[in-house]
Amino acid sequence: MLFFGPDGERQPERDVRERKAKAICAQCPVRNECLDYALSRPEKYGTWGGLNEDERASERRRRMRRAASAGISAA
Predict the structure, then answer these.
(1) Helices (H) and strands (E) in the chain, counts
(2) C-alpha distances in angstroms, 5 versus 1, 31, 46, 63?
(3) Alpha-carbon 39 to chain mean position
(4) SS3 per-residue string spanning 26-58
(5) Could you give the maximum distance between any two Cα atoms of the chain, in Å?
(6) Are 17 and 3 in contact (CB under 8 A)?
(7) What is the phi/psi pair of residue 51, to 5°?
(8) What is this structure's pTM?
(9) Backbone phi, then psi, for 47, in 5-degree steps?
(10) Are residues 43 and 60 in contact, defined by beta-carbon separation less than 8 angstroms?
(11) Per-residue pLDDT tens over the stretch 29-47
């Protein structure tokens, strides 16, 4: 259960689990595709493409801002 935490998981255990999952993701040849998949859907839990839930939420916002600025400059 490296990519999804169990119910009641405490923060220190979560940190260790996520670090191990991210190490696997770092070597994965489909990491970018995995992340794109998770960002295009409401994947709220787990490690996807090397990012945890909070990191994916930040990445979604970053991509939305980038898309919005690209739309504004194209006008």
Answers:
(1) 3, 0
(2) 6, 19, 7, 26
(3) 7
(4) HCCCCHHHHHHHHHCCCCCCCCECCECHHHHHH
(5) 49
(6) no
(7) -120, 145
(8) 0.84
(9) -100, 125
(10) no
(11) 999 999 999 999 989 999 9
